[in-house]
Amino acid sequence: MAGTTPLAVVEYGMVTAVGFNGPATCAAMRAGISGIHQANLWDFTIGEWLSAGRPPMPQWWEGPDMLPELLAPAIAECQEKACALKFRSGPVRPGDIPILTLVAPPDRPHRASDLETRVVRGLAHKLGGALPPGSEVIPEGRTGLLTALDVARKYLDSRRVQLVIIAGVESFLRQVLVEHYIQQGRLLCGTNSNGFIPGEAACAVVVSRASDAQGPRLVIAGVGEGHEPGQAGGTPQSPVTGDGLTKAMRTALSAAGTEYHQINTSLSDLNGERFKFKERTIATGRLDRLPPSGKSTRPLGYVDEWHPIEYLGEIGSAVFPCLLGWAFEAGRTGHALGAKMMLFSGEDQGTRAAVVTMFEGGKHDER
What we know:
By secondary structure, this protein is an alpha/beta fold. The protein is built from nine helices and twelve strands.
């Protein structure tokens, strides 16, 4: 990534299957409450309804024009919280905060070719006016956070803005999509246990320069990127190697100046597909070593794994803002097992992204 200015998450917002705002979603996930229920999606392999994670929206929508309906409340939550933050230069107005929105990449099946335009137009309508200057849509899916952080850093370094909102939104709750993933052997259904549960969500975080944040903040201490040759599950010719995730995590750890044995908690996009667990196992096996004392210092003796998709379903482009928001809330409320966390995610075309975070100014457990 370009630039070295440390950034920090200072607030967040969410619309998910377990809550219509950030704190409600995080409280539900921490309590183990699942938003997975029977949905109006048909499993043609056994002739039954599928389970899915659907937010409590007032009516049923599907397709790209529904995404702004999901996204607007999460953005509005971030804007409201951002206006309450204190800065030396004075209060911030919603119109001064650029919105960077992560959406599905062009190779996502059955994706609208004009998705970016429809999301911008719909979001502007829902928010009651043109989006703030500098707002843009980043069509890079689960790993688009890497680009979004670079763009946010550019804006914040210019001192033209004090805050940037990074949001993600995606829905897998369409019959045409679930049929595609069933045929690909990637969806959890009556004839396949090696698959994900479809979901939809919008999640967003408010980012500032770490040096400007005066309250609790989740500092993005290190970022890494890698490429997995096996992409989404591998083939006999190109099997899963874990190389991409290993590189991403190693780079993030190096940038943060830390070792993996100092990480107590990991948040990720593990979704029930075996290849994701396989990559995680390979990468951590390569990176995790005992500290010089020869004895683990982790409170549980192992890395505590948090994966929101267990409760929300597969949420695609919304997953990294979700991970950052949950990590921020865990630090602020003292539920984290220490200040440092490892966050990672992967996109189907092979990109892998990892972020090491450090919480400052809250009730996190320093053990």
